[in-house]
Each structure stands twice: as structure tokens, then as C-alpha cells.
Amino acid sequence: MAYLEWGDARNRDVLVCVHGLTRTGRDFDEVARALCGRFRVVCPDVAGRGDSDPLPDAMLYGVPQYVADMVTLVARLDVEAVSWLGTSMGGLIGMALAAQAGSPVKRLVLNDAGPLVTRASLERLASYVGKAPNFASVEEAERYIRAISAPFGPHSDAQWRFLTETWLRRNADGTWRAHYDPRIAEPFKADKDLEIWALYDALRCPTLLLRGELSDLLLPATAEEMTRRGPRARVVEIRGVGHAPTLLDPDQIAPVREFLLQGISS
Q1: How many Å is the maximal CA-CA distance in the chain?
Q2: What angle do CA 96, 33, 245 make, to 5 degrees?
Q3: Percent helix, strand, coil in the chain (nearest 5)?
Q4: Which residues contact 105 (CB under 8 A, 6 or more apart)?
Q5: Pair type for strands 40-44 and 3-6
Q6: For position 112, which CATH number holds?
Q7: Residues 42, 59: Cα–Cα separation, whole Å
Q8: CA-to-CA distance for 227 and 126, rounded, in angstroms?
Q9: Is 110 a member of any domain?
Q10: Is the CB of residue 212 less than 8 Å from the CB of residue 114?
């Protein structure tokens, strides 16, 4: 599993940032720039994505394997505790890890991720995961990214280009492809809501929930219930955004920074 590190490797205050289903650790570049003065920021590519190796068995692409990989990563970092920022799938991984007895997760930020994932959002994801075509140019790929990632909300041209370039890998013939192993779609099921309230209720660490105002994955009622049970998350809603906030703008990073800095000494 490949990962990027930002900040002082000797810093014992570690922030692990984990991306969504079809993204990479590069999604957290702006977060890392904003926080690496206070944290050692570690941004892995989950197995089968980015620069990480694919798994030999496609049916291993799921949260249990990802959690096991993250346990190994935290051990490699040689720290007893970490803060965790997870977008969508990265939030589910963080939730599963933080729910374990003796978990290293001391503060948890869930970016548009919760214990109830709607069937509608899973069906939308299933409509394109593992089905991306090859692209003749980066510009062609950017048009595709703008279409499938429209719920990310308004972005500048430079931000859309960044979201595209970090998503691409070049083929030997000069064309471009999605960075991930298309087999990640094989174990993916979208036939019903995904409910993991038992994991959420087991959380004991302070938890911040970011919710895209227009999210189809994290419903308002789910976010509201998350404030009343388990760790009783604090909720910050990002206006004009669906699933999921990209954390590329300072106003989206600010509540994350404020929450995480509460967990370290000045």
C-alpha cells in the first residue's frame, strides 16, 4: 500500500486521511498543506487504487481487508494514536477501525459518511464504478469527471483539472485510464441500504461529521440521528454540495482544522 507523508516524520500527532471509493490519497493535498505544520499527515492509496497494488482476489475489496491494511499502516507509523479523516468509503473504514477495542483512533472526522448508506447513492456509484472507458486526452477525461462528479458541487477549472489528473494513469499506447483496478466493482452491491449502526454506536472518540447539503448518500435524518447516539457527532453542513465535499477550499477545511486541533497540545 502506497502512501504520501506530509510534515515532520518525528511528529507524534498523526492525521491519517483516507479517500473515497474511486479516488486516491491525492484528494487530501490541500488538507495536508493546511495541517502539516501541526500534524504528520499520512494519505494512503487504498488497495487497488492509485499507486497501491491490486489485490489478488477481487472479493477482498471490502472494509474488512481495508481495516486490516490500515492497522498495518498505523503500526508502520510507530505511533499509539492517530486522528482520522475519511471521505465516504474512507469514513466507513475509519468508523470500523475506531469501533474496535483498543483502537488507535482518538479523533474521527467523517466526511459525508455515516452508518446508513442509501440504496439510491449505491446505485448511482454502481452505475460507473469499474466502467470508465479509456480516454484519448486529459481534456476528454475531465469532461467525464465533471459529469460523474457533479455532486461535488461548484469547482474552479483548476480544481476540476486537479481532480482529473490525480484520477488518471497513462496506458502504454498514450491513452489514459482510471487509476483503480476495475475489479473493485465486483463485490459491490447496490440492492439495499447499507446499515452499520452497531459500529457507530460502539464509537467512543470525539467525532465530527461533515455533510454535503445535497448528499444522496447521507440523509439529513441519518445525520440528525448521529448527533443523538454513539459518539453524538457534531455536524457541519457544507452548503451547495452533494456527495461528497472535496475539501479543496479553505472554508471546507476550516471546521476540520478546528476540530482536530482540539485534540493536540498547543
Answers
A1: 54
A2: 50
A3: 35, 20, 45
A4: 81, 82, 83, 84, 94, 97, 98, 205
A5: antiparallel
A6: 3.40.50.1820
A7: 26
A8: 29
A9: yes
A10: no
Question: Hey, what's the cell of 59?
Answer: 472479493
Structural domain containing residue 87 = 3-116+195-261
Identity of the amino acid at 102: G
Sign of CA dihedral 211, 212, 218, 220: positive
Q: Please calculate the CA angle 56-62-64 and round it to the nearest 5 degrees.
A: 100
Alpha helices (runs of H) in the chain, residue ranges in sequence order: 29-35, 63-77, 89-98, 119-126, 138-148, 157-165, 197-201, 220-226, 250-261
**C-alpha cell, 166:** 490525480
Is 208 inside any structural domain?
A: yes
Contact 233, 226 (CB under 8 A): yes
| Residue type for position 235 | V
* DSSP character string of 77-103: HT-S-EEEEEETHHHHHHHHHHTSTT-
Q: Specify if 212 maps to a domain.
A: yes
In the chain, the N- to C-terminal Cα span, in Å, equals 32
Domain count, the chain: 1
Q: Is residue 168 part of a domain?
A: no
Q: What is the pLDDT of residues 5-50, one digit of tens each?
A: 999 999 999 999 999 999 999 999 999 999 999 999 999 999 999 9
pLDDT tens by residue, 217-246? 999 999 999 999 999 999 999 999 999 999
Q: What's the rounded Cα separation, in Å, for the pair 188 and 114?
A: 18
